[in-house]
Design a protein that fits this description.
Structural class: alpha/beta
Number of domains: 2
Radius of gyration: 20 Å
Helix content: 25-40%
Distance between the termini: 25 Å
Mean pLDDT: 94
Length: 305
């Protein structure tokens, strides 16, 4: 009988060392009061939460810093109590706002400190955390910290096609879909999405709307991403052009499309859809692509709950 696995997430937040050379980096560690140890910020997932959201939330709760996720680092699985397993996913992340130096000690975290990578390696209490730091230094060596981020999103659950008698592009989200879209909002925020692009279908635009409304960001509607059965292009080239434009953004971008079009969208950016099982990607699911100068450094898939 397989043992239950508790899923958790965390992030190694980094920054250029103040006053140092561009290659001098610092990372953020926390000291846990009860365990009397130094570790990387992390914590367990809450019900209905996607792991990237967990990582950002836990960093903020434990350090006072709001972070934006970059490339994933690794996953660790270990026994944390007798017969109980934990799986923790880690990302590299950068600070967006908040001041770790102003963090007030409490019964859970009584110390937060920026350290050079070498000092952090010595300060960490566990080999598993040093493994996270080693994965980070490997990412530094390959230039992966400078990647751009593209989120390819499948629209949330729409009202049934067979019951919709009006203009196909005007078919809206269902009540369930609107809830999925609201829960997708923090996932887009975890990656610091700045640009929003969508098929011209209402259900795609509505999927991004909660995030767009919260940040007052416009959504660019693009008929090149429409479903062929709703007037979208039959050939691959228009989809490829739309995705190439999305890839050109320096800041993180999310593109929302339809299940039948997702393989073409991913293929256009160099991702084999079958490798990430994108064709059966559920409603409001997303594939995250970290790329730099035409090279893909990491791919993630996250399914809505």
């Amino acid at each position: 009988m397989s043992r239950p696995v508790r899923r958790a997430a965390g992030a190694l937040v980094w920054r250029p060392a103040p006053g140092g050379a561009p290659t001098d980096l610092q990372v953020l560690l926390v000291h846990r009061t009860r365990h009397d140890d130094w570790t990387v910020p992390k914590g367990k997932m809450e019900r209905g939460e996607l792991r990237p959201v967990t990582a950002v939330r836990e960093v903020e709760e434990e350090t006072g810093v709001t972070a934006r996720l970059g490339v994933p680092l690794l996953e660790l699985e270990y026994e944390y109590t007798a017969g109980r397993m934990k799986n923790v996913a880690y990302w590299a992340a950068t600070p967006v706002r908040g001041d770790a130096d102003a963090y007030e000690p409490n019964k859970e975290i009584d110390g937060v400190e920026w350290l050079t990578v070498a000092k952090a390696h010595r300060r960490l209490s566990y080999d598993s955390d040093r493994g996270v730091l080693d994965a980070f230094t490997e990412r530094v060596a390959t230039g992966a910290l400078e990647t751009r981020t593209l989120l390819v999103v499948r629209h949330a659950t729409a009202r049934p096609r067979q019951r919709w008698r009006r203009e196909p592009l005007a078919r809206p989200l269902s009540a369930r879909g609107k809830d999925e879209a609201r829960r997708l909002r923090p996932a887009l925020g975890a990656y610091g999405v700045h640009h929003l692009r969508s098929s011209a279908a209402l259900r795609c635009a509505q999927t991004l709307s909660p995030y767009a409304d919260a940040l007052r960001r416009p959504i660019l509607l693009d008929h090149r991403l429409d479903e062929p059965r709703e007037g979208g292009p039959e050939k691959r080239r228009p989809v490829a052009e739309a995705m190439e434009e999305a890839m050109a953004h320096k800041r993180p971008v999310a593109v929302c499309g339809h299940r039948p079009v997702l393989p073409r969208m991913l293929d256009a950016v160099g991702v084999d859809a079958s490798a990430v099982d994108a064709d059966p990607l559920p409603a409001a699911g997303l594939v995250v692509v970290h790329h730099r100068k035409g090279e893909i450094h990491a791919i993630e898939r996250h399914d809505a709950h």
